[in-house]
TrEMBL record:
Record carries keyword Flavoprotein: yes
One Pfam family in the UniProt entry: Acyl-CoA_dh_N
Protein name per the record: Alkylation response protein AidB-like acyl-CoA dehydrogenase
Database matches in SUPFAM superfamilies: Acyl-CoA dehydrogenase C-terminal domain-like, Acyl-CoA dehydrogenase NM domain-like
The Acyl-CoA dehydrogenase/oxidase N-terminal domain, residue ranges: 6-120
Keyword entries, A-Z: FAD, Flavoprotein, Oxidoreductase
PANTHER family per the UniProt record, alphabetical: ACYL-COA DEHYDROGENASE, ACYL-COA DEHYDROGENASE FADE29
Listed cofactors: FAD
Acyl-CoA oxidase/dehydrogenase middle domain location: 124-218
Amino acid sequence: MNFDYSPEEETFRQEVRTWMEANAPRDPSGIATGMRIGKETQFAWEKKLASKGWLAYTWPAEFGGPGFTPVQRDIFDAERARAGAPSVIPFALMMLGPVLMKFGTPEQQKRFLPRIASAEQVWCQGYSEPGSGSDLASLKTQAVRQGDKYIVNGQKIWTTQAHWAHWIFCLVRTSGDGSKQQGISFLLMDMNTKGIEVRPIVTIDGHHHLNEVFFTDVEVPVENLVGVEGQGWTIAKYLLTHERTAIAGVGDSKRQLRWLSETVARDPALKDSPHARRRIAELEVDLLALEYTNLRTLDRMAKGHSPGPESSGLKIKGTELQQGISEAQLEFGGLQAMPWGQDVEGEPVYRAASTRYNFLRACTIYGGSNEIQKNVLAKVLIGL
Ligand SMILES: Cc1cc2nc3c(=O)[nH]c(=O)nc-3n(C[C@H](O)[C@H](O)[C@H](O)COP(=O)(O)OP(=O)(O)OC[C@H]3O[C@@H](n4cnc5c(N)ncnc54)[C@H](O)[C@@H]3O)c2cc1C
């Protein structure tokens, strides 16, 4: 493919840049360098994107998205990150959306997709359980069919933003027969249903994004089953390729690398350091390579293919790069690299670079650990 932007793409970039500059949330707490933002700011931002028709920016027009080309998606994400605006909560937009488009009934598509694209419904992902992370197919949360309902009992863990979400998509066990992959189904649940309890987990960055979710005799209508009973593993794998592609995070890495380069260029003790320059150059080369690989995957997706195993490669390189940039930010970030600082009124605040560094310890784990991605690649590429 041709990597030069066409005049139309340049015009599109300018349109997105102008809109982002006018509409991105202002940045009092350092979103640009990775600080966490609150629910109200995040939801207001997603509403604003939705009113422009850009929230579901990865969706085709037939399902209510803007129908961007792969290059437009890349430009959009880069400009969003450049403006220091938060990324969207990915679970419905990047994961459930494509699943419903492929496996959902027309009724499910009509019921959920417009609400997701308009920022009315926020979702979380109920895959992992205690003891079932890498070995996801060993999951035990049970759904027993009783007439026109399932009765769900069990527990999920590490559920990002479950305390914000209106709905959860879950992998549940509907049968113990056959292989462990065979008895899994994909179920949608309203978080307000009686019997669902959310308990917080605070992580090393000092924030609450993760949760445990408990299900006790939760009644779920059978029309909330996606695909057929027992097809959950196929759906789960399809969803994970979309999740891993989204984790690559090219736009945000560009933003972070720019912050690093500017910080080093302003520092008289660092700006001529061969060590700092080499580190930044290495990161830039890796990021460029990742961007082109990402564009190739997006191009295939736009032609109707699912991301496939290359999503595992993108996930590995993307997350290693995110960690590499955040490590360099700590090494060269001076005051910004301190874990604590003071705001203009002298109040203690977390420094964004160190918060980000701490959070990013997790990126090689979530979405399936990088060791598991290497196993996926080994199986596909060399048949191990
Ligand atoms: C910040 C964060 C957010 C998350 N958000 C969500 C979410 O929203 N929804 C959700 O469902 N889950 C979520 N997760 C869970 C995540 O998917 C799991 O943590 C991940 O799949 C690893 O599972 P585990 O934690 O049980 O570790 P384990 O599976 O116990 O793995 C422990 C270690 O052993 C290694 N290992 C295990 N098996 C193998 C193998 N076969 N070969 C080589 N190495 C192996 C792993 O790589 C890892 O280093 C999140 C996790 C984090 C950290």
